[in-house]
């Protein structure tokens, strides 16, 4: 939570440790604790702090570059980010992550919940990893309204059906040429042959005859002009399931309409504006990946075994999520953590500023000595003596 780098040694030197460094090495490498239980406990904390009628979960993958073939899960990946300073194919570790989206001061923030390293060999892939992440926590969300936001890579029938089986709705982008059709006409009395399974296909010519609506929606941190067409249709790749589809276009800064995108929602009761706004929340996970790599050391996280790497990465994810939760509280005590830079205008409460404030408090402080075994709470030194002195003076 306090170290800007992903090295274990960096974290070891931030605070005063009670034991020798080998104890923490063995705790990571051979300790009997579960990083999955840690993530589940973090989910319980989010549910206690954040009150939402509808929970939005985001699933996406990211790539951390590696030079060594011995790193767990290290293999050659296609660099789909199209970054000009990287080759088209690079070596790295592919992580499939699950995040919880919350709204903080008109902006959406993703809290990392779970992440899974895609194996370098075998039939398992990103789709199986995504289903595994949901399966690990879905029981904690029993009775809650949940929507899963994904990009076009995860919009597959096997994934969507697994989400629907757990009571989760899915909102995502699909290919613009996805086969969509009307409901089949009712079978006439005495009609011969098998009943039709699908109705007429929606071609670009039929789509152009749909009503076009232009609205202004808060997307990606600003107000944007959007025009869309929408209809409830049957999706052939979902075996004829009724879905709400939205053809939407955004206006560029040059005042031109961009290429149309096709959004799909398994919840047909949602309006097109709600679907567009919900899918826009998915972009917050990209900012989360960027901060985790550059400021929380995910790109330097290095362990020799897969199990140890998962443990260390989830410790870093939980530390990042705890600071983001502090920023969500917007409490006076949290704002005081950001007063270490008085020259900053209005002292904005950001995760980086909160971490700097915490670092000033916990740097080389024997935190373990604050633990009271009797009441099982953290108490600063001389806490009870200060209360007694205050009572005697009164």
What descriptive keywords fit this protein?
394 residues, alpha+beta, 11-stranded mixed β-sheet, two-stranded antiparallel sheet
Strand portion: 15-25%
Tally of individual helices:
12
Helical fraction equals 25-40%
**Distance between the first and last residues' Cα:** 40 Å
Shape: elongated
Please write the string of helix (H) and strand (E) elements. Answer: HHHEEEEHEHEEHEEEEHHHHHEEH
User: Which regions are unreliable across 5 or more consecutive residues at pLDDT < 50?
Assistant: none
Rg, rounded, reads 25 Å
Whole-number mean pLDDT: 87
Largest sheet: 11 strands, mixed
The count of DSSP E runs of length 2 or more, i.e. the number of strands, is 13
Structural class by helix and strand composition: alpha+beta
Notes on the protein architecture:
It is a single chain. The protein has twelve helices and 13 strands. The chain is α+β, with helices and mostly antiparallel strands. The relative contact order is 0.14. The strands form two sheets. Strands 1, 2, 3, 4, 5, 6, 7, 8, 9, 10 and 11 form an eleven-stranded mixed sheet that branches. The chain has a two-stranded antiparallel sheet with strand order 12-13. The protein is elongated and about 90 Å long. Helix 3 packs parallel to helix 9, helix 4 (126-137) runs parallel beside helix 5 (157-165) and helix 9 packs across helix 11 (351-362). The two termini are 40 Å apart.
């Amino acid at each position: 939570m306090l170290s800007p780098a992903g090295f274990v040694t960096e974290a070891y030197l931030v605070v005063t440790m009670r034991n020798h460094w080998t104890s923490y090495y063995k705790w990571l490498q051979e300790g009997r604790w579960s990083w999955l239980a840690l993530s589940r406990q973090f989910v319980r904390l989010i549910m206690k702090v954040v009150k939402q009628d509808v929970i939005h979960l985001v699933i996406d993958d990211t790539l951390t570059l590696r030079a060594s073939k011995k790193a767990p899960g290290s293999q050659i990946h296609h660099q789909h980010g199209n970054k000009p300073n990287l080759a088209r194919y690079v070596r790295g570790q592919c992580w499939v992550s699950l995040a919880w989206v919350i709204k903080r001061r008109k902006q959406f923030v993703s809290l990392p919940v779970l992440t899974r390293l895609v194996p370098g060999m075998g039939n398992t892939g990103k789709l199986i990893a995504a289903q595994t992440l949901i399966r690990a926590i879905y029981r904690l969300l029993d009775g809650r309204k949940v929507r899963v936001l994904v990009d076009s890579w995860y919009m597959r029938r096997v994934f969507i059906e697994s989400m629907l089986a757990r009571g989760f709705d899915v909102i995502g982008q699909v290919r613009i040429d996805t086969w969509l059709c009307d409901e089949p006409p009712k079978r006439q009395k005495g009609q011969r042959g098998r009943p039709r399974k699908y109705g007429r296909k929606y071609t670009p010519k039929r789509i152009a005859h749909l009503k076009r609506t232009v609205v202004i929606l808060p997307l990606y941190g600003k107000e944007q002009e959007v025009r869309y067409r929408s209809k409830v249709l049957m999706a052939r790749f979902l075996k004829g399931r009724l879905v709400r589809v939205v053809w939407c276009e955004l206006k560029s800064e040059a005042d031109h309409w961009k290429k149309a995108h096709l959004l799909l929602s398994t919840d047909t009761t949602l309006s097109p504006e709600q679907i567009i706004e919900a899918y826009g929340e998915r972009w917050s996970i990209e900012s989360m990946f960027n901060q985790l790599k550059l400021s929380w050391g995910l790109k330097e996280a290095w362990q020799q075994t897969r199990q140890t790497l998962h443990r260390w990465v989830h410790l870093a994810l939980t530390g990042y999520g705890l600071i983001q939760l502090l920023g969500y509280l917007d409490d006076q005590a949290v704002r005081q953590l950001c007063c270490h830079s008085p020259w900053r205008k209005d002292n904005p409460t950001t995760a980086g500023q909160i971490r700097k404030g915490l670092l000033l408090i916990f740097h080389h402080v024997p935190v373990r000595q604050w633990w009271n075994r009797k009441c099982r709470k953290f108490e600063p030194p001389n806490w009870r003596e200060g209360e007694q002195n205050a009572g005697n003076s009164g």
